[in-house]
Amino acid sequence: xxxxxxxxxxxxxxxxxxxxxxxxxxxxxxxxxxxxxxxxxxxxxxxxxxxxxxxxxxxxxxxxxxxxxxxxxxxxxxxxxxxxxxxxxxxxxxxxxxxxxxxxxxxxxxxxxxxxxxxxxxxxxxxxxxxxxxxxxxxxxxxxxxxxxxxxxxxxxxxxxxxxxxxxxxxxxxxxxxxxxxxxxxxxxxxxxxxxxxxxxxxxxxxxxxxxxxxxxxxxxxxxxxxxxxxxxxxxxxxxxxxxxxxxxxxxxxxxxxxxxxxxxxxxxxxxxxxxxxxxxxxxxxxxxxxxxxxxxxxxxxxxxxxxxxxxxxxxxxxxxxxxxxxxxxxxxxxxxxxxxxxxxxxxxxxxxxxxxxxxxxxxxxxxxxxxxxxxxxxxxxxxxxxxxxxxxxxxxxxxxxxxxxx
Length: 407
Hints:
Elements: H1 4-19, H2 21-35, H3 45-50, H4 52-66, H5 75-88, H6 95-110, H7 116-146, E1 155-164, E2 169-176, E3 190-195, E4 204-209, E5 219-224, H8 236-244, E6 250-257, E7 269-274, H9 278-291, E8 297-303, H10 312-321, E9 325-331, H11 336-341, E10 346-347, H12 352-358, E11 365-369, H13 372-385, E12 392-395, H14 399-404
Helix pairs in contact: 1-4, 1-7, 2-4, 2-6, 5-7, 6-7
Catalytic activity: 2 nitric oxide + NADPH + 2 O2 = 2 nitrate + NADP(+) + H(+); 2 nitric oxide + NADH + 2 O2 = 2 nitrate + NAD(+) + H(+)
Protein name: Flavohemoprotein
EC number: 1.14.12.17
């Protein structure tokens, strides 16, 4: 345990670290990659270039310091981070260099304000937090490796099928190259890809939600090809998958992970997706149809128009064939074809009036996934409606949102 003086120093200086969080994060990664360039293989390099990873680190440092005497208060954050650490292969031996570098970054940014006493206190705090993470991650590694069909590290899978779901979304059906069994998972969880792309110096790590129900002899992920737009470059990994990977090729994945999944209760469920955020929610929908035929489920999907609408016919058929399924579609920029067909329920966004008109009760469990602005808007709407906090569940892959959000 930490002594009272250390706790006092850490909690009193945490706001200072928050104020300088972006600069500390930037300096940290600059120092870290100069010391251990192989760690580039563990980080999303696109997030690095956009500054997202740096800001997330600063936020994490502040949050941990603020709650140093009660890490239980940030349990959702810890769960998300440790799940992702296990998925990408973080090991205990990497923690010391991270801690050492973090203190160097704090000292470099704060200068003389970071006294020896402050640096010593944060060093002790980091060791305390690191030990907690290492223990949790050890248990996760053990559980994954020893479950039926489980494995350690990354395993090769063959692309058994590749299907087009929309103008930009492709589904990949994955079967293990070794022909051995694979573990099941919870609807809503994800696989982690280690992409070895020709011409790229380092591996690229990406998390992709499993988009079919559990219990099959294959895994399925569905990936949106990110084209260049608004001065943003094209997605390196999504274009690699769309343009270079086909049936018969192999890819490496770690075992399913994630703390966002469909809870095993009988309550009515509302699944709300924006764009490619549909993937984990289709997994949940398929699972409900197959295993909980009496459970009422409303599936709400928001996207630009029919061209970007993945799984459109699949969800429509489920709603037609199963009385417990209701499907609602919102198009933000419908095409002339969409307007003529009138094959959607609203032009615009998910708002409180739309939910209250179509959802019988705010006592349902709400699961949602999509771009950050979409998540924030839906979350605000549910809070405005007065939905209980423990009935609100969402998935994000942006590091800052992971750290700042409730499960």
